[in-house]
Amino acid sequence: YSTAAQGNRFSAENIQRVEVIRGPGSAKYGGFAELAVIRVTTLAGDSNWTGFDASARYSVFDDLVYGRRDIGVTWAENLGISRLAADFTGGQGHRSNEVYTDFWGNSYDMAEASDVSPLHGGLHFQSRGLDVLAGFDRYTQTHRDNYTRILRRVRHSDYNTYFFRALYAAELSDSVKLIPSLHFRRAYPWKSVSNV
After folding, report:
1. Residue 94 gets which letter from DSSP?
2. Bridge partners of 185?
3. I want to staple 44 with a disulfide (CB 3.0 to 4.6 A). Which of 8, 87, 140, 176 is the partner?
4. How far is residue 41's CA from residue 48's CA, in Å, rounded to a whole number?
């Protein structure tokens, strides 16, 4: 996303697979997907994984300012002919605690304006031909670094997505399958909320 460096977005422990879908994807994924889309599949999203996973992370910079503090929980279970899975991750972080200096010599302390805070969760249910997936991804970031000059004020940006998908695969015969589906996605890939 432009010059805004992102970090602390997904916990590595919760990632099952990462795919890079090359080529333009703006029609499906929004205006900032003109070159490629990165698809992250979590443990709960992988239909072959079952179990429970909990994680907590805390890191500090050399001056004892926290770098990130996150928690995550993932659970998936086969329940007879059905499967239910859920995951949740939330946290706070800083990109840096150093002083940033632009090309013109202007500078600011990144410890006060480089927050990166993820919050996302999902629920996935499968039974026979029914497949229902719902979730949200909210990522908040503050920064002042820009293309050529430091911004005068802190920019608070949100990257929010809410989604729901339901489909049912009905086998009408050995060679014919009917799959009606309902998809909903509301995405704000880059919404500058306010200047603090």
Report:
1. B
2. 163
3. 87
4. 12
